Amino acid sequence: MRALRFVTASLLVAGGFASAQTADAPRTDHLLNTEEKAADAAEPPYKPITRKQKYEYSLEQMFSGPRLIGILARTAIDQTEVIPHAWGPTAPALGVRVASQFGRSFLHATIATGIRDLDHEDPRYFYSHKTSPFDRTKYALIHTFWVHNDNGSMMPAYSRFISDFGMPFLAQTWRPGGVNAPDALRSGAIGIGLGMGMTVVQEFWPDFKHALHLGPSVDALIGPGTIH
């Protein structure tokens, strides 16, 4: 858990620094309402997306910048704590853990998409249109668990809780030791914590891209860089 707290704290600090440096950076991404803040400070009108677009969006997120950061962070935690122990702490074991995390990410996206289809959640992240790094961070943390639905109103992010806690039980089928409920619940709690960190990264991701001068070719490689 010390590693999780370190990763999350690092993401928050980095996000705040990037925002302070590039507060005026333009933010535009595929399938997102990312228009610049209007003169009257009003957010853009809500535009729903289709079921097919939701599924395509969820698959894209497996290779988005924040998601890749989350996969690497989770892999680092498991490698440091040697989880599962049977894989050992060696370099080849690191590769196995990376592959396992991508499998878990795909399973997570599949579960979340199914839940969203039932409760009509919108998977997109909508930028805050705020200027203060503190306000943007607070907004991101709240919207980890509070999301739009298809009519534009807000609702709890049931898909996050179900996928974060359901995925570990299914993923344990290919990990040594079989299904272990305490380990699965621990993994779900870590997933929630990393999800909070990744949502903060998502809020500041356009600032990172602007500061690093990432062009369209890089965007095409990593996806639109949006989660939830």
Total helix count? 8
How do the strands line up in the largest sheet?
1-2
Radius of gyration equals 18 Å
In whole angstroms, the N-to-C terminal distance is: 23 Å
Tell me roughly what share of residues is in helical segments.
55-70%
- Runs with pLDDT <50, length 5+? 1-41, 216-228
Strand content: under 5%
Q: Any idea what the shape is?
A: globular
| Mean pLDDT reading | 77
Description:
This protein has helices at residues 2-21, 51-60, 65-81, 91-119, 133-142, 158-171, 181-211, 216-222, and strands spanning 146-148, 154-156. It is mainly α and 228 residues long. The protein has one domain (2-22, 50-222). Strands 1-2 form a two-stranded antiparallel ribbon. The longest helix has 31 residues, at 181-211. It is globular, with a radius of gyration of 18 Å. The relative contact order is 0.20.
